[in-house]
């Protein structure tokens, strides 16, 4: 390619790469919002703001590409080979990220992330939750999620506390207990404060020997049963959920706890 054509092509790349990438990423964000998948990445309270900002980005990108203008970089000398290499590498990474957003289907966080971030490492010590659970009626207890149960289990192992508190249809995905992976798994959910980056795994231990043969990791289940002393020899949880019913279910439309 002649030097003049190469210089012209380089100027076009420099001018429009950012605009195109921002426009495409904005459009993808709008598409995720339209199909209800944006909640897999950010807290619902930020969706409206994100959609507005993405719409502005797409509109600005379209206007920038469509508007004729005079450029003041025609007389600028071509950059050095090293500068071009660095710029192309940066542009390549941005394009790869953008293409990945298009080609890779939206997916929720899974067992792999839960194991990396350690289940219940950030479970709450909220004394008010424990106090409220101690006097909760049957209907309230039946509505407890992984968040409430993990908070309670973190603060008490008194089996008498759980006598009149059966677990009903506790929803979450299956993650192995690292201390006793053959006999115990966690019913897990991610708690999200802002976005998927800060998501923290919470879980309730379930003792069911041979569980993996019926419920592989990442399977979404609803578990009913009662809390009992942990019969595991290697498990570190003093109290576990002993199930009476484990039902495989579809992943909910909002898999995270907010």
From TrEMBL:
The chain crosses the membrane at residues 20-40, 46-65, 85-104. InterPro entries: DUF1980, DUF1980_C, UPF0703_membrane_permease. The keyword Transmembrane applies. Keywords: Membrane, Transmembrane, Transmembrane helix. Residues 159-258 form the DUF1980 domain. This is TIGR03943 family protein. It comes from Microcella humidisoli.
């Amino acid at each position: 390619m002649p030097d003049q054509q190469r210089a012209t092509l380089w100027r076009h790349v420099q001018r429009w790469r950012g605009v195109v990438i921002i426009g495409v990423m904005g459009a993808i964000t709008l598409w995720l919002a339209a199909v209800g998948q944006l909640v897999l990445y950010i807290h619902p309270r930020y969706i409206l703001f994100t959609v507005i900002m993405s719409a502005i980005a797409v509109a600005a990108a379209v206007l920038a590409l469509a508007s004729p203008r005079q450029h003041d970089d025609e007389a600028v000398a071509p950059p050095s080979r090293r500068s071009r290499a660095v710029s192309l590498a940066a542009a390549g990474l941005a394009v790869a990220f953008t293409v990945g957003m298009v080609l890779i289907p939206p997916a929720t966080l899974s067992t792999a992330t839960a194991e990396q971030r350690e289940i219940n490492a950030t479970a709450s010590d909220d004394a008010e939750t424990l106090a409220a659970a101690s006097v909760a009626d049957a209907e309230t207890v039946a509505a407890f999620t992984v968040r409430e149960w993990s908070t309670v289990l973190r603060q008490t192992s008194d089996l008498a506390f759980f006598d009149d508190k059966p677990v009903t249809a506790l929803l979450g995905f299956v993650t192995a207990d690292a201390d006793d992976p053959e006999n115990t798994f966690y019913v897990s959910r991610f708690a999200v404060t802002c976005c998927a980056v800060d998501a923290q795994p919470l879980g309730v231990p379930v003792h069911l020997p041979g569980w993996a043969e019926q419920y592989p990791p990442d399977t979404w289940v609803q578990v009913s049963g009662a809390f009992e002393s942990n019969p595991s020899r290697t498990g570190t949880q003093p109290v576990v959920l002993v199930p009476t019913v484990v039902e495989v279910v579809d992943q909910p439309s909002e898999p995270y706890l907010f």
